[in-house]
């Protein structure tokens, strides 16, 4: 990796650990996991403002926020114009860069332009670090997540954090197994999925009884749907990553509750929130688009008082695609 890129990314990653820890463990957090989708409502934010900055490992990005309704919004990458969009009648705007963002550290800024040509600059910036392909922010091999930190006069807030940081710990070793999804349908079929070292075998245990096994794909993803129906109740799941020597190289566990999906509900499937989840990631896996997190939010407003704060163990209904 280019040394000029590595140094600012590494410094930014270290600085963000404290910010993430404050968000996860600070006053009023209640042990929840920040979904990083909306700005806190404690103070009125000057417009234009960022709400979402999300970069996929491929470099494709979604940037969204708020501005005065009807104004033009310029998104700046340093002093370079990254792109332009418009705020709708509610003041919401979304921008999807046509090209993937290049690896490196950068600062994103905003300008809004009124119909009379008046330009208002945003009073906050997003410091963004995008890792090299197939590397994490520390330069190690493996799929890496970007880091986006919103900074302004009211302090700093993480908009996107690598999985290891969002879970409040040190980076996990490359290839270590994770459980990212636990979902089920109205008929009682349960699917479990996650990440592990490509080519290794994953064994799924229910209540310590082997209930399924699969091989991890070349993309590092695995998924198992046991050939059985799950009744409502409490369950413990464990997955073991087994190496060529048949020894367990890595292990992950999660407990979850299965509750009925109401017959009158539009949803045909439910998803259990596991550590590290956020609404954006759940929507991306469910619908292929993270921006559709609002569909899940609207279907579960009785449980989600704040879209920016969800808790492991919560069960959200996922409406069928329209």
Any overview of this molecule?
This protein is mostly beta strands and 322 residues long. It has 2 domains: 3-166, Immunoglobulin-like, CATH 2.60.40; 196-257, no CATH class. Helix content is 13%, strand content 40%. The strands form 5 sheets. Strands 4, 5, 7, 8, 9, 10 and 11 form a 7-stranded antiparallel sheet that branches. The chain has a 5-stranded antiparallel sheet with strand order 16-13-12-19-21. β10 (147-152) and β11 (155-160) form a beta hairpin. The protein is globular. The protein starts with a helix and ends with a strand.
Q: Structural class of the helix and strand makeup?
A: mainly beta
**What's the pLDDT, averaged over the residues?**
78
* Percent strand: 35-45%
Number of domains: 2
Report the order of strands and helices. Answer: HEEEEEEEEEEEHEEEEEEEEHHEE
Annotation field: number of helices: 4
Low-pLDDT stretches: 1-43, 165-171
Radius of gyration: 21 Å
Total count of strands: 21
**Which architecture name of the largest domain does CATH use?**
Sandwich
Pfam family, one: LysM
InterPro entries: Bact_Kbp, Ig-like_fold, LysM, LysM_dom_sf
Organism: Niveispirillum lacus
Protein name: LysM domain-containing protein
């Amino acid at each position: 990796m280019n040394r000029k890129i590595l140094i600012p990314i590494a410094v930014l990653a270290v600085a963000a650990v404290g910010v993430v820890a404050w968000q996860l463990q600070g006053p009023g957090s209640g042990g929840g996991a920040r979904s990083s989708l909306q700005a806190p409502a404690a103070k009125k934010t000057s417009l234009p403002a960022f709400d979402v900055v999300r970069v996929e490992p491929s470099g494709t990005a979604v940037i969204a926020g708020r501005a005065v309704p009807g104004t033009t919004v310029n998104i700046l990458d340093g002093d370079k114009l990254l792109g332009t969009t418009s705020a709708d009648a509610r003041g919401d705007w979304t921008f999807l860069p046509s090209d993937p963002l290049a690896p490196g550290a950068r600062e994103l800024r905003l300008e809004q332009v009124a119909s009379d040509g008046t330009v208002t600059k945003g009073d906050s910036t997003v410091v963004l670090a995008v890792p090299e392909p197939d590397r994490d922010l520390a330069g190690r091999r493996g799929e890496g997540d970007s880091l986006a930190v919103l900074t302004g006069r009211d302090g700093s807030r993480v908009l996107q954090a690598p999985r290891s940081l969002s879970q409040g710990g040190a980076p996990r070793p490359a290839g270590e197994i994770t459980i990212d999804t636990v979902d089920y349908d109205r008929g009682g079929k349960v699917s479990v999925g996650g990440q592990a070292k490509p080519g290794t075998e994953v064994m799924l245990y229910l209540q310590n009884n082997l209930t399924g096994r699969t091989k991890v794909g070349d993309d590092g993803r695995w998924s198992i749907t046991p050939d059985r129906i799950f009744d409502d109740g409490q369950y413990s799941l464990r997955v073991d990553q087994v190496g060529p020597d048949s020894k367990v190289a890595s292990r992950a566990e999660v407990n979850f509750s299965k509750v009925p999906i109401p017959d009158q509900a539009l949803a045909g499937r439910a998803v259990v929130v596991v550590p590290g989840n956020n609404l954006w990631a759940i929507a991306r896996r469910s619908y292929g688009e993270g921006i559709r997190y609002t569909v899940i939010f609207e279907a579960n407003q009785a449980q989600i008082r704040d879209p920016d704060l969800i808790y492991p163990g919560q069960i959200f209904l996922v409406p069928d695609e329209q």
